[in-house]
Design a protein that fits this description.
4-stranded parallel β-sheet, 10 strands, 2 domains, binds D-glutamic acid, Rossmann fold, alpha/beta
Length: 265
């Protein structure tokens, strides 16, 4: 049995492309429809009500493309809106929080985990809730890093400024002697090298985009939804504003050329 319907993936903008990259690697037979809400980014400074309204509209858009499942490739939308989305739609919907938290719990040796993300993700307490549930004795230190998203979008991936900002943000986590850090924002895998440099080699970085790509494959497999057919695969990109600006950033995120990005609607 094969299900050629696409997988729908959305983010507030380009960050979710770190997830697309992993999905292309791990599930190369799947067709993909990506939606980046570039007209309304950032989500990380907005309220639960607003992010949930945007997220519902994003899933409605993907559903019009007949998607067989949805990946919420945004930590902010996953933290604030995933449970509501799951109640509203009938296709399987997964987010990035639980796969990242599970990987951190599996990996930590001293039980001291750190998480960084947008202000909305950190103040939602979503990571605390899931870590407490899965490993009540683990300690979680969280820190919002609002300057990271604009630095990544400007392409300041390995600049001195980014390293200095990272050193300030990560100081409290280093003091707590974390041995594992969850990158709780889909932009942050772009900063892996600088974060590793600041934290030192002994701290393990958990890239939620890798974890969610694995979870996506497992959900498709369990539901008999895998696309096993051969032939050319389709990866369609839609944004709510400025396709040209998206393409430039997207090629950096995906490390490959993108042929066509359409404005949705
Ligand atoms: N992609 C978002 C996230 O993972 C960050 C960007 C935003 O604030 O919208 O939280």
């Amino acid at each position: 049995m094969t299900d050629p319907r696409p997988v729908g993936i959305f983010d507030s903008g380009v960050g979710g492309l770190t997830v697309v990259r992993q999905v292309l690697d791990l599930s190369p037979k799947e067709n993909i429809v990506y939606f980046g809400d570039t007209a309304r980014v950032p989500y990380g400074t907005k309220s639960k009500e607003t992010v949930t309204r945007f997220s519902v509209e994003n899933v409605e858009f993907l559903m019009k493309h007949n998607v067989k499942m949805v990946v919420v490739a945004c930590n902010t939308a996953s933290s604030l809106s995933l449970s509501f989305l799951k109640r509203c739609f009938r296709v399987p919907i997964i987010g990035v929080i639980e796969p990242g938290a599970k990987a951190a719990i599996r990996s930590t040796r001293n039980g001291k985990i750190g998480v960084i993300g947008t202000s909305a993700t950190i103040s939602s307490g979503a990571y605390e809730k899931i870590v407490k549930k899965l490993r009540p004795r683990a300690s979680l230190t969280s820190r919002s890093c609002p300057l990271f998203v604009p630095l990544v979008e400007e392409g300041w991936i390995d600049s001195k400024v980014t390293e200095e900002v990272a050193a300030i943000y990560l100081e409290p986590l280093k003091k707590k002697r974390i041995d594992t850090l969850i990158l709780g924002c889909t932009h942050y895998p772009m900063l892996k090298a600088v974060l590793q440099k600041v934290l030192g080699k002994s701290v393990l970085l958990i890239d939620s985009s890798e974890e969610v790509a694995r979870e996506m494959r497992d959900v498709l497999d369990a539901g008999g939804l895998l696309n096993t057919s051969t032939g050319r695969k389709d990866c369609k990109f839609f944004v709510s504003d400025e396709p040209g600006r998206f393409v430039k950033m997207a090629e950096r995120f995906l490390k490959k050329r993108i042929e066509c990005v359409k404005k949705a609607g």
